[in-house]
Design brief:
The complex is a heterotrimer. By secondary structure, chain A is an alpha/beta fold. Chain A is built from 22 helices and eleven strands. Chain A has a nine-stranded parallel beta sheet with strand order 7-6-5-4-3-11-10-9-8. Chain A has a two-stranded antiparallel sheet with strand order 1-2. In chain A, helix 14 links the parallel strand 10 and strand 11. In chain A, helix 10 packs across helix 16 and helix 12 runs parallel beside helix 14. The N terminus of chain A is likely disordered. Chain B is an alpha/beta fold. Helices cover 42% and strands 18% of the residues of chain B. Chain B contains five helices and five strands, in the order βαβαβαβαβα. Chain B has a five-stranded parallel beta sheet, sandwiched between helices. Chain C is of the alpha/beta class. Helices cover 46% and strands 13% of the residues of chain C. Chain C is built from twelve helices and eight strands. In chain C, helix 2 runs antiparallel to helix 5 and helix 4 crosses helix 9. Chain C is globular, with a radius of gyration of 21 Å. Chain C starts with a helix and ends in a 6-residue tail after the last helix. The chains are: A alpha/beta, B alpha/beta, C alpha/beta. The interface between A and C is small, with 3 and 6 residues.
């Protein structure tokens, strides 16, 4: 991949400010440094030697037109809705349509989560997002031994098509878009969603939604892997291929930086690793023989919205610019829809504290503001009880209201890319872009994303950043309100949300009934056909669908795949 | 040779969020301890077996997905059964306030929730090893 | 001693505790070691050396599984370096052997070097004795892989396995001096990366027969599980070779001799660590520096007048 920094255009450079005006600015600045600033520092030195972002990146005292010297605003900044999309992927952004308010939800059994979906829709969320429990994420049915103690605690249990039916009961899936956070068994869960739509007479051509399906970041950060990289990538490309033909409005992947960031990465690492993964998916799609413009428009992204507002905004803008450029110039995509980086964001869960949890409402608001100023297409805001449990009703409603305040009361949605042109934001965008390319070079030198995963490169970078961040907190170089400063010793009053024995029993009964009622011969035949498909080159999606229709459970289908593909063993690094 | 404190850091169950466990492991190492990290997806049996073979002074269990009540007390029970009840077990991760006294009753000697300073954790392991 | 009885019965908790006692230089350790020593000598001790990252732990994991299928009891002592700055260590080999977790026929102990240079800890081979005495008949010792670990392990193990992986460029030039002389088995791991054939044939070309044993070169992929059976067979073959001729006795003598010297060195260090002797030592050092005596003469005098610690 040609990773040279493309934005330096030879020839005529039109400065943000004219050269003679720049000289005047420089003169003024030097004078200021020698007089007003110097005098001020003598009276009152700055409170620290270096000021850094949440990612420990240094920030200057003042940014001026000089920081944009040599940059062509028409070229690198451009206009929203046109290459390179720095300012946004639509010309009108939120004036045309607000971002989707999409609250990640799930706990207990399908009934419980269905109730939560309806509650949120009632209160104004505009898209659905499903959180699955640990056993489901790892491809185990609720009644398998590996699932012991893990049912429904951090998401909803979906072991079969029956569960999927209950999960979306009474919800118009033809009208609302659904995002599902599922990775290793994404094809299977998607097949269940599709089979459910089929059963309800909703044509696939009208279905809108996303499956996260981003296996590369699992090896790097979230660790919800099952199979080794190569067969997993095959499954992902199968969904690209299937989706482009059968479910054309579906985003078959949400290439994620959120989890990489949560695991401890810096903003630049989040940016670089996510895009590097993205390019890898594109390569695999092309290697399969797919035309890039047939699948690239349905690649979507998912970023973290962390504390440092300006760093986050710069990150999103740099992401859009890098992706557009690489897709058009390196991968040769012709359709502008292939150049668009569309993303969902979630405020940073890891930043929320157990101490004085109500204060988390403020953190989430600032982080959500960053995402909106950064031009997100869809947003989840965390609830204040994040450090205790999955959200209770009161907490999640406040989180949703936070988005509504931003949308309707704050005024930030009135114009496109409000921070565009800020010397600070533009300089930061440029710097992060350059640092991302440095990472691309390093990854390439290691042989590419998958060899780098095997060498533990990402995992080590992330662990190092995580440790440094923690040390900064320990040394009080970094203040976390309520944790190492402004501490109060009071009990939190978080209302608990519990998974009950009744929920579990109901779920187990449903699986058992499914197993009893299904046609055993059809079931066996479908699983055998799936095994054969996995061993060969065929697209696995139709076989997974058949298995789902024949009543196979998630665990049974994944067991077939485990048998054929094997299981991944991760390299250990600290 | 001076006695070294040996600690087993473990992630029972399916939860793959290992940022905290790894950061604590490093901190304990920096404090002069010998740390064995079991890796992900350990059963209580795996953890207890490792603790016995490694003859650790303490075990740190981490879970962020809510499975702690099902898995952590099991570790304490198995240790006692294997004659290793003197090994100190502590917990960390996402644990609701209500569960803290329940874990204590089940034999977990300390619960380190989010925001606990590393220095406190290190100090606890130091004193527990005596 | 109660703990010795339990160890001899195969009690894992006792074995774990006894290893700690030895590592920590517990007062009862010497007595316990003396009590178990007559019960050692059955285990086949196989050392694994090779640069960090070459896949020793994963390979050992595969071997454990293979030997368990062959119904052997397997022990592993895995050594990792102690940080010279903090005195702590992250012992990260066990995690790669985690799928044998609760198998009663497997015992894995992670140990830190605790300041000892050379790829092994002082207590490493005492730990091996404990496992030997507890009824384990095959013990793998995994070194840190840096420094002179090959030399150290070769003098303490019966069978030394040198693990390498394919490298770019002239592979064999990159091997450390001496490495071609000390291994009994050579493994080229990570064949899944490619380039293994070139490396294997280079190694094979350069290895020579020693005392009737021609070190084989075996290609493995711990990731894919290939070559593991062949390696297990080769380990057994070397054992039979040693037992069938003078090899076993020679190795045992080498081990005993090395351990004897180690023990004497420790006693010397302990002797001169105590107050009176310590002063004597330092005074002697001063005299050497001042050219009042020379090191050889001084050493003779110190040893002649030596008082051993109780």
């Amino acid at each position: 991949m040609d990773t040279r920094f493309h934005s330096e255009q030879p020839g005529v450079a039109v400065d943000v400010v004219r050269p003679d005006e720049l000289d005047a600015v420089e003169k003024r600045l030097r004078r200021w440094e020698g007089t007003t600033l110097r005098d001020s520092l003598k009276k009152q030195p700055e409170s620290r030697e270096t000021f850094v972002t949440t990612s420990s990146a240094p920030i200057d005292r003042l940014y001026t037109p000089l920081d944009l010297r040599g940059k062509d605003p028409a070229e690198t900044l451009g206009v929203p809705g046109e290459f390179p999309y720095t300012r946004g992927i639509h010309p009108t952004m939120y004036r045309g349509r607000l971002w989707t308010m999409r609250m990640f939800s799930g706990y207990g059994s399908a009934e419980d989560t269905n109730r939560r979906f309806k509650y949120l829709i009632d209160h104004g969320e505009t898209g659905l997002s499903v959180a699955f429990d640990m056993p489901t994420l790892y491809g185990y049915d609720t009644d398998e031994p590996e699932a012991k103690g893990e049912f429904g605690t951090c998401g909803v249990a979906v072991s079969s098509l029956r569960d999927m039916e209950v999960l979306f009961h009474g919800i118009d899936i033809g009208a609302v878009s659904t995002s599902m956070t599922i990775n290793s068994p994404a094809s299977v869960i998607w097949a269940m969603y599709l089979a459910n739509a089929e059963g309800r007479g909703v044509p696939w051509s009208g279905l809108r939604g996303t499956i996260q399906n981003d296996i590369l970041k699992e090896y790097q950060a979230q660790k919800e892997w099952i199979f080794p990289p190569e067969p997993s990538m095959r499954l992902v490309v199968d969904t690209f291929e299937f989706g482009s033909k059968e479910v054309p409005q579906w985003n078959t992947i949400s290439i994620s930086g959120y989890h990489i960031r949560e695991a401890g990465a810096t903003a630049v690492q989040e940016l670089a690793f996510t895009l590097a993964n993205g390019f890898e998916y594109v390569r695999w799609g092309i290697d399969r023989g797919l035309r890039i413009d047939d699948f690239a428009p349905r690649l979507s992204f998912f970023f973290n919205a962390h504390n440092d507002l300006f760093e986050e905004v710069a990150k999103y803008r740099a992401a859009r610019r890098i992706w557009a450029r690489e897709m058009r110039d390196t991968f040769g995509a012709k359709n502008p829809r292939s150049w668009l980086l569309r993303f969902h964001s979630q405020t940073a869960g890891v930043s929320l504290t157990a101490q004085q949890p109500e204060v988390n409402i403020v953190r989430t608001a600032v982080q959500a503001l960053a995402a909106v100023l950064g031009g997100t297409q869809s947003l989840h805001t965390n609830s204040y009880d994040e450090a205790y449990q999955v959200p209770n009703e009161k907490a999640v409603r406040i989180a949703l209201r936070t988005q509504q305040i931003l949308a309707h009361e704050s005024g930030v949605a009135n114009t496109v890319d409000p921070l565009g042109g800020s010397y600070f934001v533009e300089a930061l965008t440029d710097r992060m872009e350059k640092e991302a390319y440095d990472y691309f070079d390093r990854i390439q030198a290691l042989g590419g994303v998958i060899p780098a995963i095997r060498k533990g490169f990402f995992q080590q970078e992330i662990a190092n950043s995580a440790y440094r961040y923690q040390k900064e907190i320990e040394d009080k170089e970094r203040v976390i309100v309520g944790v190492n400063e402004f501490v109060v010793d009071e009990p939190s009053e978080v209302e608990p949300l519990r998974v009950t024995k009744e929920m579990l029993e109901r779920q187990v009964r449903r699986i058992q009934k499914l197993r009893k009622d299904r046609d055993a011969k059809k079931h066996r035949k479908a699983l055998d056909a799936l095994a054969k498909a996995c061993e060969g080159d065929a697209n696995t999606m139709p076989f997974i669908l058949d298995a789902v229709r024949a009543g196979a459970t998630l665990g049974e289908i994944c067991d077939v795949m485990r048998e054929v593909f094997g299981v991944w063993e991760e390299p250990l690094l600290y | 040779m001076a006695k070294k404190i040996r600690v087993l850091m473990a992630k029972p169950g399916l939860d793959g969020h290992d940022r905290g466990a790894k950061v604590v492991a490093r901190a304990l190492r920096d404090a002069g301890m010998e740390v064995i990290y079991t890796g992900l997806r350990q059963t209580p049996e795996d953890i207890v077996e490792a603790a016995i073979q490694e003859d650790v002074d303490a075990i740190g269990l981490s879970s962020l997905s809510g499975a702690h009540m099902a898995l952590f007390p099991e570790v304490v029970k198995l240790l006692k059964k294997r004659g290793a009840g003197d090994i100190v077990v502590v917990a960390g991760g996402i644990i609701p306030d209500d569960d803290v006294p329940r874990l204590a009753k089940a034999g977990i000697k300390a619960v380190f929730g989010p925001g606990t300073p590393l220095a406190d954790i290190v100090a606890f392991f130091r004193s527990a090893a005596k | 001693m109660k703990i010795v009885e339990l160890v001899l019965k195969g009690d894992k908790r006792a074995a774990g505790k006894l290893i700690s006692m030895i590592e920590d230089d517990d007062p009862g350790a010497t007595e316990a070691l003396a009590a178990i020593y007559p019960h050692t000598g059955k285990a086949h001790i196989v050392g694994f050396t090779g640069p960090p990252g070459v896949g020793k732990s994963s390979l050992i994991n595969r071997l454990i599984r293979e030997f368990r299928v062959r119904d052997r009891k397997v022990g592993v002592v895995a050594v990792d370096p102690t940080s010279p700055f903090t005195g702590g260590a992250v012992l990260g080999d066990r995690i790669r052997m985690s799928d044998t977790g609760t198998d009663p026929g497997v015992f894995i102990r992670s140990m830190a070097t605790r300041g000892h240079t050379g790829g092994l800890g002082l207590a490493t081979f005492d730990a091996v004795k404990v496992l030997d005495a507890s009824g384990i008949d095959l013990v793998f010792v995994e070194t840190v892989g840096a420094g002179q670990s090959e030399i150290e392990i070769a003098s303490r193990a019966h069978t030394t396995v040198v693990v390498q992986m394919p490298q770019s460029g002239d592979a064999v030039q990159a091997l450390k001096a001496g490495i071609l002389e000390i291994g009994d088995l050579y493994v080229v791991n990570k064949t899944d990366l490619g380039g293994a054939d070139a490396m294997s044939s280079n190694l094979d070309f350069m290895l020579e027969e020693r005392q009737g044993w021609r070190p084989p070169v075996i290609q493995t992929s711990a990731l894919e599980g290939t070559g593991v059976k062949e390696l297990a067979d080769a380990i057994n073959k070397h054992y039979r070779y040693l037992k069938g001729g003078a090899g076993w006795r020679r190795k045992e003598s080498d081990r005993a001799r090395k351990e004897l010297y180690e023990s004497m060195r420790r006693l010397l260090a302990e002797s001169f660590a105590d107050e009176t002797e310590g002063i004597t030592l330092e005074e002697t050092v001063g005299a050497i520096v001042a050219r009042k005596t020379d090191a050889r003469a001084a050493a003779k005098k110190l040893l002649r007048d030596l008082k051993l610690p109780k």
